[in-house]
Structure formats: C-alpha cells, structure tokens
Amino acid sequence: MSTPPLLLGAALLFWGLQTGLWPAALALGGALEGSRLVRRRWDLQPSHFENLADLSALGFAAAVVYAYATREAAAAVMALFAWLPFVLFPLAVAQVYSGRPVVDLAAFFLSMRRRPQAERARVDLLGPYLLVLVVSAGAANLRTPAYFAGVCLLGLVALWGVRPRGPLPAWALRAAAAVLLGAAGHAGLYRLQGLLLTEGARLLVDAAPPPGEARRSRTAVGQVGAIQRSAAIALRVEVPDGGPPPALLRDAAYDEYRDGEWRAKDSDFSPVPPGTSEGSWRLSGEPRAARRVLVRAAFARGRGLVAAPPGTAAIERLPAAEVGLSRFGTLRVLEGPGRAVYRAVYGAPEADAPRPSDLAVPAAESALMARTAARLGLAGMSPAQGAARLKRFFQEEFRYTTYLEAAGRAPLEGFLERTRSGHCEYFATATVLLLRAAGVPARYTVGWSVQEFSPLERRWLVRGRHAHAWAAAYIDGAWRPVDTTPSGWAELENAGNPVWQPLADAASWLREALTADPADDGPSPRRRVLLALLGAGGLWLAWRLGRGWKAAARKDGSSPAAPAAVPSGGDSEFYAVERALAGAGRGREACQPMAEWLRGLGERPDAGELRRLLALHNRYRFDPRGLPGTEREALREGAARWLAGRGAP
C-alpha cells in the first residue's frame, strides 16, 4: 500500500510542531507537495538513488560528529533523532518526483549493488520515512499529551484507507476503544517510569554519598585482584607561560581512617567570596611567586569537585552560582557549567592549624605503625627529615603493582612486612599513619597526577588511570604534599594501552576542538581552522558527488545529450501497421499481446496477411538470430503494400 500524501504531510507537520522545527517542516512539506505541480517526472535511474543514499549516509555521519562534539552524550542522541528527517529527505523527495512506487533496495546496501537488477528487492521509502517522522517527533521529549494525541490521529488517518467494510459507527467505536486503552497504558507506563526513577535515585543516594560532598573515600586497601584503570581523558592541563605543570591536582583530603575507608570530619563547605571579575573566586591572598595553570574539566549536572594544585589561592573563569571551600582545601562548585576551562592561581602555603584528628592512629594499626616508625627512627627526626626518610624507604624497599595479593585480615601489616608491594592507596595510607605515629600531623589526599604530554594537543592529558593518592604533612608551618609512591608507577599504568589508543585520543581531541571554548569569547583559532577544513572537505565532497551523478547519468543513458539507443527489432515496419489500425479505432491495449490483439480484430480479408507480417515481426524482434536478408525485405515490402492498400503513409 502506498503512503497517502495527506498522511505524509500531516506527519511532517506533527514532527515540526513537536520539535519546534515547524518552519523546516513547512519547507519540506512544500517541496513534497510541489511534485503535484511538476507534470514531467524525473527520469531517475537506480544509480541516482545510490548516490543519494551515499549522500544521506555522509550527512548522517557529519550529524553524528557535530552532535557529539557540541552536546553531552544523551543530548546528542536526542538531537540525532530529531535531525533524521533532514538526513533522509533527499531520498523521499527523489521517490516522490520520480513517480516510482518502489525504489531499489540496493541503494542502502553495498552488498546488493553487484546483483542483477532482476534479483534485487524493492521497497517504498515513504512508509519508513513516515515512521522516522513519528519517532523523531518523540525526540523533543515533551511531557504533554500532544505527542500521544498526534500519534493516534496519524494512526487513524493511516487506518482509514484500509478500514474493513461495514457500518462507519462500528469502526469509529472500535477506534475510540483502542485510543482509550492506549491512553490508559500510556498513563500507567508514565507512572511506572516515575516510580522507578524515584526509587532508583533513592537507592543510589543511600548507597553512596552525594557527588561533590567529599566526606569519605573508599580505598582498595585489602581488596584482591587487578586494578582496572580507564584510559579515558578526564582533564586537560595547559601552562600559559610554557613552564612545567603542577605535579599533582587535588580533589579532596581526609583525616580519619577506619576499615579501609578515609573520612573527612567537620568537612562543611564555606562559600568562597567572588572576585572582582566574573567567574573569579578568591581563596586567599595572591602569593608573591604565583603560578597559573588552565584546567579543562567536565562537571556532571554542573556540580562536582574542582581539581586544583595544592596551595591554590584563586580560581578564575569558572562561572557558577556558588563555590565552596572546606578546611582541608577541597573545592566544590554548585550550579556551574557542564564543561569549563578554569584558571588556578597557586603557590600559596596552606597554613590552617592541624587538629587532634590529624594525629590519630586507629587502634587496629597503632602497634604496627609504632613498630615500623621505631625501626625507621622517625621519632628522632624533624617532620621534613621524617618525610624524606619515608620516601627513601618506600622507593628502595617496595615496588608498585596494579595486582593485589591476599594479605589476610591486616592488609597494611601484610603490605609493610610481607608483600612490600601495592598501589598508591597503600603507600599514601601507610605514609599518613607512620607520620602520625612519629608525631607529625598528616592527611590522606586524593586527586590526579599530571605526567603525560600530548604533542598532538600541545597540552598535558590526565586520564582515569592517573588518579592518584598521596599524603599531606604539616611541615614548617604549612601543609605540604608527600608522595611516597615509587617512581615509575606511571609507566606501569601506561603499559596496558590498547593499540587503538592514538585513534581514540585523536577523536577526543577533535571533539574538544570542535566544542566552543568557554575560556574565550569566541571560537578558538584551532576550532576555526578545523571548521575551515571541514568546509573545504564538504565542497570537495559535493564536487565528487556531482561528477558521480553525471557519470551515472551517462552510464544509464539518461543524459539528454546521449543518443537514444534503439532496441533490437525496434525499427520493424509492423509498428507502422499497428499505428494505422489504431488510427482506424482498432488500437491495441497497453499490455495486450499482439497475437491476441489480431484475433480480436475478427475475420478480415487481410487477416492472413497481418498474421504473416506479425510472424516476421516477432522473429525480427525476439529471435537472437534475427531475420535473413530475404525475409527482412519481405517484412519491409509486405508492410509497405498493406499500408499503400489502405491509403496510409
């Protein structure tokens, strides 16, 4: 069944009203309706539809790149659904203007293009295009009854043409019952979705702390097996003056350890007063030898922890409703941007006074820490000397590993006295507790290690596997980082890079380059260059498609300048006989065989002559061997005599 023009136009209008693209819907509908005003149909060949299908595929690929480069993943998917009618419109309008009821399916499948045309399946594109319009209209995700009402109206219009014979009121009653049942089911599913979302969110909140609170950090101390770290890029770091980047970026710090979990006591956030410029937040006075670093980060739903170097005095270019600061130096943003490029000004000493919790050692680990600290002689050293002694101790006598072996009920004891191997959480936890056992205030800190420079992006990349933990010790009146993880741990983490990692990094860089730079007033120079390259590539593609279109037209013989090919036997003189009889009112039907047509003429004086001429015509037209010269001449002369006897030219 062909798709009625009224139904297709109604679906276009429905899609436009739902998505807000109603001007585009009117334009597309007008283009399709214009086919009624075009009396001469386009003579489109299968190769033309193949070119249009290739063009639509390239358009869809470009839409995917643009959507994911300018939107979050969920919004990109919804945008692609809303744009599908644009991508497929060239194929739909080509079928409408060509007047073909079906189109060769080989246009969509490269594997079918090598098959003979007789073996190819064919499909009406307007039916699937109607379905695409309905699905794309739902991409607007409007929580109103309009979508359900529109789908019902479109369904009733589609069913009207195929309704069963019978009384019209009975059909209307059945249709109304189907609509009411559908509305009840729709309302039930909507309530079920809301219930699942509410309960699921409650369970997640109960199972984990809210994002950005930074009240506790579950470590992998005591777990067994390999640690899986992601190679996805979490942060991008740039140093404006071209110097070295900060070695560490802090997310949060903690002071209480219990059963493999660090917690932050009294970690309420105080609002940071905004600075003089928009998006600036002043944490303390700017240090004399201040350094600056740009950090590109993403914030889920506009909130989260702000990765910044220890000793940060100010955050700039970070538009947000509020930025909070805890006593541990943890920064939190509320109602901020989804993606941001903020500048951290750092170099200030963190001199907040230590508290008794910064010296507490859990009872379960107190004997182990006292024994180890005494063996290392930490009690007789200054805080700076003790930190240096611990760095040498872990560097010379321990090794870094991403695989955790079973260490019994006391994982820290197994780490310090038996296996002497672990990952950064082991080293940071042991360092904090050993410093405390020696009387030095210390805290557990988590964040990121900056170590990988990208020649492609000309900036530093921080991946998921660069998440790091270290100690912060109160030395010489300020909190200073003490990282005792053995050097070379980054090489071990990077050893598992897949072979396709460069391609993934290039794709991530392209997406970052195409996204508007929040730190600038307009597109970055790199983005302008990329857009120019994409524009040049689009022009080159259009030129190639134009050449392919002309070549396909010449191949199919549809070019106006190409001479029309005459089929074998197409110059038979019997066609003149047929036209003469048609002029006398005895014409042949379009699909009627000639032999049947002659029998329908009845008994005529010239019936025998006509049958003899038809036999010669059929051999000349369909016999691969053709007609010998004498018989070909007989066909020509016989037709001429018959026409002369009837006074026909």
Characterization of this structure:
It is a single chain. Helices cover 46% and strands 15% of the residues. It has 649 residues and is an alpha+beta fold. It folds into 3 domains: 158 residues, no CATH class; 299 residues, no CATH class; 72 residues, no CATH class. The strands form 7 sheets. It has a 7-stranded antiparallel β-sheet, with no helix packed on it. It has a 4-stranded antiparallel β-sheet with strand order 6-20-23-24. It has a 4-stranded antiparallel β-sheet with strand order 9-14-15-12, with no helix packed on it. Strand 23 and strand 24 form a beta hairpin. It starts with a helix and ends with a helix.
The proportion of strand residues reads 15-25%
Number of domains: 3
How does the overall form come out from the CA principal axes? elongated
Query: Please, what is the oligomeric state?
Result: single chain
Category by helix and strand content = alpha+beta
Distance between the termini: 46 Å
CA-atom Rg in angstroms = 39 Å
- Mean pLDDT across all amino acids: 78
Q: What is the overall number of helices? A: 18
> Strand tally, please?
24
Question: Which residue ranges are poorly predicted, with pLDDT under 50 across at least 5 consecutive positions?
Answer: 201-213, 517-523, 556-566
Largest sheet data: 7 strands, antiparallel
Level of helix content? Answer: 40-55%
